[in-house]
């Protein structure tokens, strides 16, 4: 064999060996890639990508009340993202985005050359698709290594096979991290500029894109000068690539960044939002949802405009109540000593806080901070239109909702249950009882001697006057002489009171505790002609694709006869027209038809007013968390609580409507309740509860038609009887 043949055989062997080696290497590489791929997302998983999103609690008029989240991420369509923002992103992160299939070979070569020249890894070569790959899937990892890059390449190619370029851009902008816990362009836009991404300007778009390489370093909140330099770099590159004109570049470069930070954790209705969150946590497992990750839209009954009105009225009166409390406590040595010893604070330090109306430290708030709650109800549908569960100032805001969680003695606002029980047992608004003290012996050594709130007494007094003037002695005699405590207990429970009402003599003075929301809903049954609606706070829940997960309705139950409710309500109208709630007319100038009841506990720890019109029920409680503390000697329900009602109801009626299920319900400012069939009006002698004569001091009274006084007044049967 000559040398040529030998050389030819040698080259064949080399070629064969080389081919076999390369083939074997390729097989190994394929096997290795397949091995790596088993931990990476499949095409099917890529199509189902659904990142954690913010859930929103939304008011009935479309305002976001609260966001629930693990990561601050609001999804937004690519269609609404401004062109300047998309161009800024492509300029800085991936200029060849539309020309590659997930991996930019030219970019990789360029990066390698730059890194070799600089002898360091200064130049990145990741495409937007690669960045999206490691953002979307934790299995890729974030460490700088060849292994991560290979995983990234594989996933990027799969993403390009699964999505269009427009969809990739949308996924990227909804997934990328912008700092301060915000993910996605919509959340970042809201957080940094308090606006939707669709409204971002060129400057704002440049700031946000400039953040991407290192959000912690370029934050416009923490490092405005660095953010300014990054913004200028972004617009400079956009100008060089022809995305913006020279004039736009100069204007952008010279314009200073204006940050308008949005507080993601704030809420215009913090207690209501927390109430909703807790209610949802009771049913999230049943619904198969995650409140903090699924991007739910939770549509509620609250009207944000009414909530704003309620908050303003509440805050205005609570500041006044706090000053009255401070002044009253300064003149009460025993209570000052009590607070001083309980909290280990000197009397002088205590006086300094009270005299100067200073912010009350957290450890003193149970004894010194005047608290309160307020609930606005739509009695027709049972909707909660507004809710406050405590002081709303930022320094005093806490998570304890006194509307739904605090049990408080209702005092005289419990009396309508007593009078309704009497009406249901056949007694009349003109039924008379003696307005004189009684003494009850609880045991051999303890006696109970109830008094009217002002210490007054009188002779025979009608049930209407007992309600109107909130006379304790009359309500006590109703329970003693006309009905039983057990009757009152059953009536209150039928009208929706869920707390334990003790059937004792003192039930007449409202000593058993109630929840403010609960008793306000009971009053809504009186406003709604005896139909009780369970409180409705959540209307419906939608998923992030706007599909309805669950709808909620209020359960309606007839709890009292319409005619008997009419009689009770008319007695409660007397409270407003010329009784303990009369200042609503002469002082606050609210003249629409309404009814209500004031209430104050004997200790002045609790002050109440619950009032209602045909459209709106508002329950107000003002009090101290520590029952040993008094609001003030003259802080009756009419002084401490009713002003909140007055300011709120006037503004709500000026507004003239409220939202229910996203639709406006108009308020007829003059509408009164209709007189139901079976109700008759008669002239009644003021002194005898008999049918009036021409010589009586008479007035018009309502009766159920089969329960009208049958006797004509004998005392004033002729004109001479007036002069006995």
Mean pLDDT: 87
List the strand order in the largest sheet: 2-1-6-14-15
- Provide the gyration radius in Å: 37 Å
The rounded distance between the terminal residues' Cα atoms is: 161 Å
CATH fold-level topology of the domain at 70-254:
Penicillin binding protein transpeptidase fold
Q: Sheet with the most strands?
A: 5 strands, mixed
* CATH homologous superfamily heading of the domain at 70-254: Biosynthetic peptidoglycan transglycosylase-like
Helical proportion, percent range: 40-55%
Number of helices, where a helix is a run of at least 4 consecutive DSSP H or I residues: 26
Write down the CATH class of the domain at 70-254. Mainly Alpha
Structural class: alpha+beta
Overall morphology: elongated
Tell me what the CATH architecture of the domain at 70-254 is.
Orthogonal Bundle
Which ranges are low-confidence, i.e. pLDDT below 50, for 5 or more consecutive residues? 119-124, 139-145
Percentage of β-strand residues: 5-15%
Tally the beta strands.
23
Fill in the keyword field for this structure.
724 residues, alpha+beta, Penicillin binding protein transpeptidase fold, 23 strands
Task: Describe the protein in words.
- This protein has 724 residues and is α+β, with helices and mostly antiparallel strands.
- Among the domains are: 3-38; 70-254, Penicillin binding protein transpeptidase fold (Orthogonal Bundle); 679-723, no CATH class.
- The chain is built from 26 helices and 23 strands.
- The protein has a 5-stranded mixed β-sheet, covered by helices on one side. It has a 5-stranded antiparallel β-sheet with strand order 8-7-19-18-17, with helices on both faces.
- The longest helix is centred in the first third of the chain and has 35 residues, at 3-37.
- The radius of gyration is 37 Å and the shape is elongated.
